[in-house]
Specification:
With 703 residues, this protein is an alpha/beta fold. The chain has 3 domains: 261 residues, 2-enoyl-CoA Hydratase, Chain A, domain 1, CATH 3.90.226.10; 176 residues, Rossmann fold, CATH 3.40.50.720; 211 residues, Orthogonal Bundle (N-(1-d-carboxylethyl)-l-norvaline Dehydrogenase, domain 2), CATH 1.10.1040. The mean pLDDT is 96.
C-alpha cells in the first residue's frame, strides 16, 4: 500500500515511519502517502494515538526544494494542507525527532501536538537562507510555542537549535538519550498521554505570542535592521508574518503566511539563493572523481605556520575532532599562535557557543613543534607561510624528505603556481592547493586547487574533508589567483582607475555596497592591508608594467606608510573603528592623474557599477572558457562565500544573466571605445561572452 511510509500498529498506537531516502524531503509523493497514513490511523477505532518518526532516517530535512516552481509545489496535498489535516486529528500525535527537523520538517513536527527529540537532534527554520519564509505554519505555530520574540530570532537567523535548547524553549516536550531509544520513549510518552486523558492538542504555551512586547517592538526591530536588510525582501516578509501571529487567529495567520510565502517564492532573490543552494551540491561533482574513488585516511593534520592564517586553519580541523601539530621556526611564534587560538575559543565561550570543557578538549588536540621531523606521521600537511614562491618551494622540498608516502601536501597559497610548487617534490600527485580565506576559522569558502598531476584520490579526500570541517569547497585549476583573486584583479583595477579619473574611494565603495556587497573595494583593501596588495603587485610587475597608471594610487599610499586600518590610514582615515573620508587621498589622486595625463571628470554611479562589475563578470567568463572553473555556478560560490558578493543576487555570473549578456558585452565594448588607450589595453570582451551573445544564449556556459 505504501512505498515511502512504513505503517505499523503497536497495540493502541499507529507508528508512521517516513522512509524517503536520504533525508525524508517532503515531496509530493511522500506527502500523499503521509496524508493517507494519517487518514488510515484516524479511521481505525483501535488506534488511540499516532507516532510519526523517520524510519531509519532523519525525521525530515524539509520540503523538496527541487519541486519549487513546478506543478508539484501546490499539488494536493500541499504541505500546508497536509499539516492542517494532521492538526485537526482528534487523537494525540507525537513527533519522534531523530537527526534533523528543518524547515517543513519542523513545521510537520509543530503540527503534531507533542514532540520528543533525541539529544543530538537539530531543529530549525532555515527558509530565510533561500530567500523564503516558512510557508507551512512555521511563522504562526512557532510563536505560539516559544513566543514571538524568540520565534522571530530563529526564523530570521535561519540557525539550527540543538535539542537541549529546543527543550528549554518549550519547542520539544521530552528528550531521548539517543536515537536507539527515541521511538521507545516516544511511544511511552504517547501512552502516558492516553493514560492521563490528555487532549489531542494541548493549549498553546504562548496563546498571545506578542504578550509582554512593547507596542512598537516590530517597528523598532525593522528600523534597527534597515542597513542589514538593504534590498532584501524575505526578512521583511518574515517579520510581517511573525507580527501577524500576535494579531490574528491561527487560521487567518496561516492564510496570510501563505500569501507572504508565495511573494517570497516568486521573487528574483529567492531564485538566486536557490541557485546557490544547488550550486553547492553541483560543486562536488568533479571530472575524474567518482563515488568509487578511494579516500585517503586523515587522522592527523600538520599546519606549518602558527600566525593568524595558520592558527585559523588549524582550528578548523580541531573543531572537527582531528588532532593538529603546529610547526613554527621559533618557540615565541608558537606560543603567540597558541595563545591567539585559546583567545579565540575563550571568546566563543563568552558568547555561549562553547563551554569550558569543550575549550579544554579542543586545546588538548593541539601539539607544537620546531622540528619538521615531527610531521612524519601526518596524513595532511598544510603550509601557511609567507606568500613567496621560493619560500614555499623550500618548505615543500623539506616536506618531500620528511613526510610519509601518501601524505597529502597542501599549500595555502592565494595566488602562486601550485604546479611549480609541486615540481620541487618527487610526489607531485600528492600536492594540492588549499586556499583558505581569512579569518580561516570563520570563512566558509575553500578553493581547492587541482594541479596538473594531483591524484584523483587526493582531490576526493580534500573535498570530503572540506565538508567535514564545514567548508564550501570549489575546485579551481592552476592560474594566477585561481578563481577568486584572478577575478578580483580587474574588478579592483577598474575601481583604482576610476578614482584617478575623478571618482572618490567613498563613491566607488558606496555604489558597490548599495548593490549589496559586504564591503567596497577600498574598504576591503584597507582591511586586508595595502602593503599586502603592494607585495602581490611587486611579484607580477612584468605583467602590469605597460600601464603606468595601474593601481598607482595604492602604490603611492604604500610609499607613504598608509597601510590601511593597521596603520590608521589608507584610502580612508580611521578613528577607532570609524572609517572617514580623507581629502589627502583625493588630492593625491588629482596629483597622480595630472602626472599621468589623465583628464579628471565627473564619474556617474552607473559607470562605476558597469566598469567594476562588467570586468569582474568578464574575467569569470574567461576563467570558465579556459577551464580553470568547471561551472559558472562555481564562480558564483567563490564570490558569494569568499568576497562578500550578495547571496541574494546569486553571484556575479548569475547576476550577469539577470542583467542580460548583451548588456554586459555592449557595456564593455562601449568603455573600450571611449577610454582611449586604457580601454584598448584592458577592456577586452572575453571570447566566450562574444560567442554566447552571438548565439543568443541567456545562460553562461561553455560553447
Amino acid at each position: 500500500m505504501y512505498s515511502l511510509i512504513h505503517y505499523s500498529r503497536d497495540n493502541e498506537l499507529a507508528l508512521i515511519g517516513l522512509h524517503q531516502a536520504p533525508v525524508n524531503a517532503l515531496g509530493h509523493a511522500l506527502r500523499r502517502e503521509l496524508a493517507e497514513a494519517c487518514r488510515q490511523a484516524a479511521a481505525d477505532p483501535a488506534v488511540k494515538a499516532l507516532v510519526l518518526h523517520g524510519q531509519d532516517l532523519p525525521f525530515s530535512a524539509g520540503a523538496d526544494i527541487g519541486e519549487f516552481g513546478s506543478d508539484f509545489t501546490w499539488a494536493e496535498p500541499s504541505l500546508p494542507a497536509l499539516l492542517e489535516q494532521l492538526e485537526s486529528l482528534d487523537k494525540p500525535v507525537v513527533a519522534a525527532i531523530a537527526g534533523v527537523a528543518l524547515g517543513g520538517g519542523l513545521e510537520l513536527a509543530m503540527a503534531c501536538g507533542y514532540r520528543v527529540a533525541e539529544a543530538s537532534a537539530q531543529l530549525g527554520l532555515p527558509e530565510i537562507l533561500l530567500g523564503l519564509i516558512p510557508g507551512a505554519g512555521g511563522t504562526q505555530r512557532l510563536p505560539r510555542l516559544v513566543g514571538a520574540e524568540q520565534a522571530l530570532q530563529l526564523i530570521l537567523s535561519g540557525q539550527r537549535l540543538g535539542a537541549g535548547k529546543a527543550h528549554e524553549l518549550g519547542l520539544v516536550d521530552r528528550l531521548a538519550d539517543n536515537r536507539d531509544d527515541l521511538l521507545e520513549r516516544a511511544c511511552a510518552f504517547a501512552r502516558e498521554l492516553l493514560a492521563d486523558a490528555a487532549p489531542a492538542r494541548p493549549a498553546w504555551p504562548h496563546a498571545e505570542p506578542a504578550a509582554g512586547l512593547d507596542d512598537h517592538y516590530f517597528d523598532a526591530y525593522a528600523a534597527r535592521q534597515v542597513s542589514r536588510w538593504h534590498g532584501q525582501v524575505a526578512p521583511q516578509l518574515a517579520l510581517a508574518a511573525v507580527q501577524s501571529a500576535g494579531q490574528l487567529p491561527l487560521a487567518a495567520g496561516l492564510a496570510l503566511e501563505q500569501e507572504l510565502f508565495q511573494q517570497a517564492l516568486a521573487s528574483a532573490q529567492s531564485a538566486a539563493l536557490r541557485h546557490l543552494f544547488f550550486a553547492e551540491r553541483e560543486a562536488l561533482k568533479i571530472p575524474g572523481v567518482t563515488r568509487d574513488t578511494a579516500l585517503r585516511p586523515i587522522g592527523k593534520v600538520a599546519v606549518i605556520g602558527a600566525g593568524t592564517m595558520g592558527g585559523g586553519i588549524a582550528m578548523n580541523f580541531v573543531n572537527a575532532g582531528i588532532p593538529v601539530v603546529l610547526l613554527e621556526l621559533k618557540r615565541e611564534a608558537l606560543d603567540r599562535g597558541l595563545a591567539q587560538i585559546r583567545k579565540n575559543y575563550e571568546i566563543s565561550v563568552q558568547r555561549g557557543k562553547l563551554d569550558e570543557v569543550q575549550l579544554q578538549q579542543r586545546m588538548a588536540l593541539f601539539c607544537t613543534t620546531l622540528d619538521y621531523a615531527d610531521l612524519a606521521d601526518a596524513d595532511l600537511v598544510i603550509e601557511a607561510v609567507f606568500e613567496n614562491l621560493e619560500i614555499k618551494q623550500q618548505v615543500f622540498r623539506t616536506l618531500d624528505e620528511v613526510c610519509k608516502p601518501g601524505a597529502i601536501l597542501a599549500s595555502n597559497t592565494s595566488t602562486l603556481d601550485v604546479d611549480r610548487i609541486a615540481a620541487v617534490t618527487r610526489r607531485p600527485q600528492d600536492v594540492i592547493g588549499l586556499h583558505f580565506f581569512s579569518p580561516a576559522n570563520v570563512m566558509r569558502l575553500l578553493e581547492i586547487v587541482r594541479g596538473a598531476a594531483t591524484a584523483p584520490d587526493a582531490l576526493a579526500t580534500t573535498l570530503q574533508l572540506a565538508r567535514k570541517i564545514g567548508k564550501i569547497p570549489v575546485v579551481s585549476g592552476v592560474c594566477f589567483g585561481f578563481i577568486g583573486n584572478r577575478m578580483l584583479e580587474p574588478y579592483a583595477r577598474e575601481a583604482h582607475r576610476l578614482v584617478l579619473e575623478g571618482a572618490s574611494p567613498a563613491q566607488v565603495d558606496r555604489v558597490l555596497t548599495n548593490l549589496g556587497l559586504a564591503m567596497g573595494v577600498f574598504a576591503m583593501y584597507d582591511l586586508a592591508g595595502i602593503d599586502v596588495g603592494y607585495l602581490v603587485r611587486e611579484s607580477r610587475r612584468a605583467a602590469i608594467a605597460h600601464d603606468p597608471s595601474y593601481c598607482k594610487l595604492a602604490d603611492a599610499l604604500y610609499e607613504r606608510g598608509r597601510y590601511g586600518q593597521k596603520s590608521g590610514s589608507g584610502f580612508y582615515r580611521y578613528a577607532g573603528r570609524e572609517r572617514l573620508e580623507d581629502g589627502e587621498v583625493i588630492a593625491l589622486a588629482e596629483q597622480l592623474a595630472g602626472t599621468l595625463g589623465i583628464q579628471r571628470r565627473v564619474i556617474s554611479d552607473q559607470e562605476i557599477h558597469d566598469r567594476c562589475l562588467f570586468m569582474l563578470i568578464n574575467e569569470g567568463i574567461q576563467l570558465l572558457d579556459e577551464g580553470i572553473a568547471l561551472r559558472s555556478a562555481d564562480i558564483d560560490l567563490v564570490w558569494v562565500n569568499g568576497y562578500g558578493f550578495p547571496a541574494w543576487r546569486g553571484g556575479p555570473l548569475y547576476y550577469a544573466e539577470q542583467l542580460g549578456l548583451q548588456r554586459v558585452l555592449s557595456g564593455i565594448r562601449n568603455y573600450r571605445e571611449t577610454l582611449g588607450v586604457y580601454g584598448e589595453t584592458w577592456l577586452r570582451p572575453a571570447p566566450l561572452l562574444e560567442r554566447l551573445v552571438a548565439a543568443g544564449h541567456q545562460r553562461i556556459e561553455r560553447c
